[in-house]
Amino acid sequence: MTDEKDTSDKKAPIPFTTPEMVELEAQAALTRLELASTVDALAQRLDPRAGLHQATDQAKAQADKARDAAQQLWHDATSADADPEASTRARVVLASAAAVAVLAVAAAALKRRG
Prior knowledge:
Elements: H1 19-46, H2 48-78, H3 84-113
Protein backbone atom coordinates (compact mmCIF):
# COMPACT_ATOMS: atom_id res chain seq x y z
CA MET A 1 0.00 0.00 0.00
CA THR A 2 2.90 2.29 0.27
CA ASP A 3 3.51 1.98 -3.48
CA GLU A 4 0.39 4.00 -4.39
CA LYS A 5 1.13 7.48 -5.65
CA ASP A 6 -0.89 10.41 -4.39
CA THR A 7 -1.95 12.39 -7.48
CA SER A 8 -4.08 14.91 -5.65
CA ASP A 9 -1.09 17.09 -4.85
CA LYS A 10 0.01 17.39 -8.50
CA LYS A 11 -1.21 20.36 -10.47
CA ALA A 12 -2.54 20.07 -14.04
CA PRO A 13 -0.06 21.33 -16.61
CA ILE A 14 -0.68 24.86 -17.86
CA PRO A 15 -1.54 24.80 -21.56
CA PHE A 16 0.99 26.47 -23.80
CA THR A 17 -0.40 29.24 -26.04
CA THR A 18 1.06 31.96 -28.17
CA PRO A 19 -0.58 35.05 -29.65
CA GLU A 20 -0.42 33.35 -33.06
CA MET A 21 -2.30 30.33 -31.70
CA VAL A 22 -4.97 32.56 -30.17
CA GLU A 23 -5.34 34.41 -33.48
CA LEU A 24 -5.60 31.15 -35.44
CA GLU A 25 -8.24 29.84 -33.03
CA ALA A 26 -10.23 33.06 -33.42
CA GLN A 27 -9.98 32.84 -37.21
CA ALA A 28 -11.12 29.20 -37.10
CA ALA A 29 -14.09 30.13 -34.92
CA LEU A 30 -15.03 32.96 -37.29
CA THR A 31 -14.72 30.65 -40.29
CA ARG A 32 -16.93 28.07 -38.54
CA LEU A 33 -19.60 30.74 -37.93
CA GLU A 34 -19.46 31.91 -41.55
CA LEU A 35 -19.69 28.33 -42.79
CA ALA A 36 -22.65 27.62 -40.52
CA SER A 37 -24.38 30.74 -41.82
CA THR A 38 -23.74 29.70 -45.42
CA VAL A 39 -25.05 26.18 -44.79
CA ASP A 40 -28.18 27.58 -43.13
CA ALA A 41 -28.79 29.91 -46.09
CA LEU A 42 -28.37 27.06 -48.56
CA ALA A 43 -30.68 24.82 -46.56
CA GLN A 44 -33.32 27.53 -46.52
CA ARG A 45 -33.03 28.07 -50.29
CA LEU A 46 -33.31 24.34 -50.96
CA ASP A 47 -36.18 23.75 -48.54
CA PRO A 48 -39.29 22.93 -50.60
CA ARG A 49 -41.53 24.46 -47.95
CA ALA A 50 -39.80 27.82 -48.32
CA GLY A 51 -40.30 27.69 -52.09
CA LEU A 52 -43.92 26.69 -51.59
CA HIS A 53 -44.53 29.64 -49.27
CA GLN A 54 -42.91 32.02 -51.74
CA ALA A 55 -44.93 30.61 -54.66
CA THR A 56 -48.12 30.81 -52.59
CA ASP A 57 -47.43 34.43 -51.67
CA GLN A 58 -46.77 35.31 -55.33
CA ALA A 59 -49.95 33.54 -56.45
CA LYS A 60 -52.00 35.38 -53.83
CA ALA A 61 -50.51 38.71 -54.89
CA GLN A 62 -51.27 38.00 -58.56
CA ALA A 63 -54.82 36.89 -57.71
CA ASP A 64 -55.37 40.09 -55.72
CA LYS A 65 -54.03 42.13 -58.62
CA ALA A 66 -56.29 40.32 -61.11
CA ARG A 67 -59.32 40.76 -58.84
CA ASP A 68 -58.62 44.49 -58.50
CA ALA A 69 -58.26 44.83 -62.27
CA ALA A 70 -61.53 42.94 -62.86
CA GLN A 71 -63.35 45.12 -60.33
CA GLN A 72 -62.00 48.25 -62.00
CA LEU A 73 -63.00 46.89 -65.41
CA TRP A 74 -66.52 46.14 -64.20
CA HIS A 75 -66.76 49.59 -62.59
CA ASP A 76 -65.60 51.29 -65.79
CA ALA A 77 -68.12 49.31 -67.87
CA THR A 78 -71.14 49.88 -65.61
CA SER A 79 -70.57 53.23 -63.91
CA ALA A 80 -72.02 56.40 -65.36
CA ASP A 81 -69.27 58.52 -63.83
CA ALA A 82 -66.43 56.52 -65.46
CA ASP A 83 -64.22 58.06 -68.12
CA PRO A 84 -65.95 57.53 -71.51
CA GLU A 85 -62.81 56.10 -73.10
CA ALA A 86 -62.26 53.71 -70.18
CA SER A 87 -65.93 52.77 -70.27
CA THR A 88 -65.78 51.92 -73.98
CA ARG A 89 -62.58 49.92 -73.54
CA ALA A 90 -64.06 48.02 -70.58
CA ARG A 91 -67.21 47.16 -72.53
CA VAL A 92 -65.15 45.88 -75.47
CA VAL A 93 -63.04 43.72 -73.16
CA LEU A 94 -66.09 42.32 -71.36
CA ALA A 95 -67.89 41.63 -74.65
CA SER A 96 -64.81 39.86 -75.99
CA ALA A 97 -64.51 37.76 -72.84
CA ALA A 98 -68.19 36.83 -73.07
CA ALA A 99 -67.77 35.83 -76.73
CA VAL A 100 -64.78 33.63 -75.87
CA ALA A 101 -66.78 31.99 -73.07
CA VAL A 102 -69.71 31.31 -75.42
CA LEU A 103 -67.37 29.81 -78.03
CA ALA A 104 -65.73 27.60 -75.39
CA VAL A 105 -69.12 26.30 -74.22
CA ALA A 106 -70.23 25.70 -77.82
CA ALA A 107 -67.00 23.84 -78.63
CA ALA A 108 -67.41 21.67 -75.52
CA ALA A 109 -71.02 20.89 -76.47
CA LEU A 110 -70.03 19.94 -80.02
CA LYS A 111 -67.22 17.76 -78.74
CA ARG A 112 -69.65 15.87 -76.47
CA ARG A 113 -72.04 15.22 -79.37
CA GLY A 114 -69.64 13.88 -81.80
